[in-house]
Amino acid sequence: MTARLTLSFDNGPDPDVTPFVLRELAARGLSATFFPVGDQLRKPGGRELLAEVAAAGHVIGNHSMTHTVPLGESPGWETVGREIADMQDLLGDLAGDEKLFRPFGGGGRLGPHLFSPEAVQYLVAERYTVALWNSVPRDWEDPDGWSERARRDVQRRPWTLLVLHDIVKEAMEHLPAFLDGVLADGVEITAELPPECVPVCRGEVTGDLGPLVAGG
Ligand SMILES: [Zn+2]
């Protein structure tokens, strides 16, 4: 079976990195999902940059306003309002029809720190889709080594949802070679999300949230 790969770029947009990523994707006819954070989006030029991402046909999700504290470690409605609802308002019409949320993982970990019970209640009531991940090659920590790890991840999984960051220039300099490598491996790069990484789909709970919710 052909291995599949879904690309996602978190924590941007960044004027020194995002345009480069867009060019490399466009050069290969690839689509990805971008998960910007509010504090980056509010910087001068941030909105124009994200509008370029949307105009290029990529999907834009919500990766929280401040990206500072995992929701499960800050229970209550105030955090939900600031980190999810206010960020969705800030995205406005740049967000797609499907409201997509990716929680702040604090280094890519999956666990009960990801969501508070209130956050889950909100995401379900507001009919969000939650996009997690299954490969975090830690490009921000290892700008030169991430791409080999990522390529191995893609080879051994049927469908990888890869988290990269369009914010570390040195790391993204390896993106062209990585993309050409996985394409040479025969991997199908798709914009669809693997169901195993989507525990909530348009408000329907489709996965096991228990291990991902504080006190759950
Ligand atoms: Zn992040």
Notes on the structure:
By secondary structure, this protein is α/β, with parallel strands linked by helices. 34% of the residues lie in helices and 14% in strands. The strands form three sheets. Strands 1, 2, 3, 6 and 7 form a five-stranded parallel beta sheet that branches. Strand 4 (100-101), helix 5 (117-125) and strand 5 (129-130) form a beta-alpha-beta unit. Helix 6 (146-156) runs parallel beside helix 8. The longest helix has 15 residues, at 77-91. It is globular and about 45 Å long. The relative contact order is 0.20. The model has no long low-confidence stretch (mean pLDDT 97). The site of zinc ion has 5 residues, from loops. Zinc ion is lined by residues 10-11, 63, 67, 104.
Count of all domains: 1
Going by CATH, the homologous superfamily would be Glycoside hydrolase/deacetylase
Q: Sheet with the most strands?
A: 5 strands, parallel
Shape: globular
Provide mean pLDDT, rounded: 97
Helix content: 25-40%
List the ions, cofactors and other small molecules found in this model: zinc ion
What's the alpha carbon Rg, rounded to whole Å? 16 Å
The number of helical elements comes to 8
Give the C-level CATH assignment: Alpha Beta
Care to give the gist of this entry?
This protein has 216 residues and is α/β, with parallel strands linked by helices. 34% of the residues lie in helices and 14% in strands. The protein has helices at residues 18-27, 38-41, 46-55, 77-91, 117-125, 146-156, 169-172, 175-184, and strands at 4-10, 33-35, 59-60, 100-101, 129-130, 159-165, 188-190, 200-201, 204-205.
